[in-house]
Amino acid sequence: MPPLIESVPRSGRPVSSPSRDALQNFFMTGVRPGWHLDPTADGQGGPPFHKGEVSMTKDRPGHAIVIGGSMAGILTARVLSDHFGQVTVIERDRLPDGPDVRKGVPQARHLHAFWAGGMDIVERLLPGVGNDLLAAGAVPLDLPTDVAWLTPANRWTHPFPGTQRVTSATRSLLEWTVRSHVTKVGSISFRTEQEVTGLRLGPAGEVSGLTLRSRSTGATADLYADLVIDASGRGSKLPEWLGELGFGAPEESTVDSHLGYATRLFEIPAGFSARWKAAYIQNAPPAEPRGGIMFPIEGNRWVLTLIGGGGDYPPTDEDDFRAFAASLRSPLLSDVLDVAEPISPIWGYRRTGNRWRHYEKMAMPGRLLVVGDSLCAFNPAYGQGMTVAAKEAEVLAGILADCRSTADLPRALRGAQRAIATRARGPWMLATGSDLRYPNTVGATQTRMDRVVNTYLDRVLARASDDPVVSAAFLRVLNMIDDPQALFSPRLMPRVLLGRRRITAVPNDFVVAQRLSAVPVGQW
């Protein structure tokens, strides 16, 4: 999840150009020079979400297949269950019976949180998920109240009354709880330890199903469907399958800042009490590529993640892990290491490049869609993937709302991939814009517009630390309730560019192990 939005200290000079409209368009389209996305795509993310609306015919005929059983796949399956009589989820792994780590989610041991914009959609699709997560020990965090957040400008954010709630838990608990609700939907079935080896085309050149291979026996079988959706993640084989069928592979955009992180679990000390529940020492590249974040999770534990960008990877051995924490701009996380009992090994992760496969730009066979990381994989350090998957499921629900039979699918799916892709645009611009701050980032270089936007976001984050109006607007974007262009509204821009600091600075070298709870964050 960290860094949330990268930024660097600046001099306070106002941004005068490009125009506000140009900046808003930059975020609405997600286009950098050399990119040519379809100008007819809906910049607002496609049709609205219709809770509980059942389409197709009364008895919901038809069969839909989802490739992949992670968060994007199971949320997609839940949406499809309102429109198809049978939904099959194909998963390579053997799914655990409880909230356990599995091979297909290698980043599961690291920090995860569900932003409010995603959790709201999940709760509408699967009522009761939020309560079940809390009952299992997930921790609600009200932002900004519950987080001691040191911004790149060396300011601790003021604990204004919480405006957004984040759900903090292990990825395993989040996924297992959602999947437990999905498996109760009678029309959804899971076929596990099965590998898809290719697509099947019907006489009309549309996808009619796929070929499966059992990972345990090697036996193969064909499975037919009216709609196939690829949610198999970063390792998706869809480009290969499309190439085999003569459609070619999608164009790719990649941005890799060589960011890595290292994570360890700690038991929260008995009797610990503080005004804050979580802490975030934000990276400030290029000058300060290091940062760290600590969230509470189920089981009375802290998950502490150290982050390094530009190839400055945090180590996974004990002494160097501690030294890396001690090198941060605040001693807070280093002090945690001194007083909290470690209860896990140190895990590293470095597969963090952003990659967008532009299926929305290519000719695809009918009755095939792509969602989740198969479509657009973000640097996981920014924590966007699960919420974007939920928002893509929301778009899919709207796309299918008017279908009355499987014969309507070709019409309903016309332009559907473009509509789904719009949900990735804002998060993509924030993630890649942050990653482009590191000097050795590969795949793209900062354009003038990138620099202007990043400078403006510096100002947003600086103002958000002490202005409640800017703070609330920023948190709505961070939680993916509003699109990034909301930060360029006529109401907000004067406060960002012309506003004066409202809260006195506090030193950042105040935390000692004996007074871990004494974290001043502004004037209370």
Automatic annotation (TrEMBL):
GO terms for molecular function: FAD binding. InterPro entries: FAD-bd (IPR002938), FAD/NAD-bd_sf (IPR036188). Residues 65-403 form the FAD-binding domain. It comes from the Bacteria. PANTHER family: THIAMINE THIAZOLE SYNTHASE. This is 2-polyprenyl-6-methoxyphenol hydroxylase-like oxidoreductase.
